[in-house]
Methionine aminopeptidase
Amino acid sequence: MDVIVIPVLLSLVIELKTPGEIDAIDAAGSVVARILTAVRERAAPGVRPTELDALAADLIAEAGAVSSFRGYHPRWAPGPYPGVLCVSVNDAVVHGIPARTKLKQGDLLSVDFAVHLDGWCADAAFSMLVSGGSEASMNGSARSTSADEKLIRTTEAALQAGIDAAQPGVRMGDVGHAIAQVARGAGYGMLADHGGHGVGRSMHEEPHVPNESKPRRGLRLQPGLVIAIEPMLHAGGRDSYRHDRDGWTIRTADGSRAAHAEHTIAITEQGPRILTLR
Ligand code: MF3
Ligand code: CO
């Protein structure tokens, strides 16, 4: 999702994976899915995102995997990434550095996570509403959780639409078109300049996977192509964003909440296969 489309990059090599390599990415994806489930179960009011990061780091070690995030240093970033998770709360869309600030009832949490296992990467993300504990822990705010739930559900539906569209023989533009139909149809904004990406030995490979594009345009999807699809939706309906002072965290420009969902998938003869499932 850090891929910003530069026309020159479009000519770079796209590596197709063998069935055995796809199985290896699926093994990494199972680790990602299992750890994300553990993070989801731990996330609750009073828990610090730094604690979620520590939990994930322990589970990575236990699985014999390696964080794809920690130490990652793309050109646009101020320094190497410090965590194993991205934890983006409320108006943070993506790339939130796990903070010590405790989660609160009603926070909208997005968690992004990738590992390498035996040299192969898998990348996934989910969004959730922080809840749990007693009624007494409710902050009593009038904020409606149903708006947040709808944003999360629509983000998941946009991801699923993108996956369903990713059939062999169709074009990449059909994927972005399917995602945007769902997101725009519900009146949401989408994070400008960001989308999904190829996945393989590296977390970010060619091709770029747009979250919005014209149908019947672009790369023809072939069996063996492995990509991460990751819609990022803004409740406020606008696409603009800003970077935090930390240089990583991306926030909606209007302060509205955002949600993110991601799976790594393979295009196969039989259709899309999700690799980041338990
Ligand atoms: N998982 C993100 C993506 O989908 C990348 C996170 S950036 C990192 O592209 F620095 F945290 F790794
Ligand atoms: Co990604």
